[in-house]
Design a protein that fits this description.
Radius of gyration: 21 Å
Order of helices and strands: HEEHHH
Strand content: under 5%
Number of helices: 4
């Protein structure tokens, strides 16, 4: 949870302070320069996908330790992996 909050907070800071002066973000005609927001959004999207994948895999070791038949474990794993 702290990892997700960390990169979301850094994305927030990038959006706020990505331009110098910060007013250039809303008014592109001002003198100054801005960070490459497309590259930043791509990087944050990558981290979001990776964290979602890791969170999705978290319950699997516990499921496979249950005293169920193999088909039951696969079924429960598929329910969790589907996001239900």
């Amino acid at each position: 949870m702290f990892l997700v909050f960390g990169y979301l907070f850094s994305d927030f800071l990038t959006q706020i302070f990505g331009c110098f002066p910060p007013a250039k973000f809303w008014n592109p005609d001002l003198a100054g320069h801005c960070f490459n927001f497309k590259a930043a959004d791509l990087a944050y999207s990558f981290f979001n996908i990776i964290s979602d994948f890791l969170i999705m895999l978290l319950p699997l070791p516990m499921i496979w330790k249950l005293q169920l038949k193999w088909k039951g474990k696969v079924g429960i794993s598929l329910v969790f992996l589907s996001g239900a």
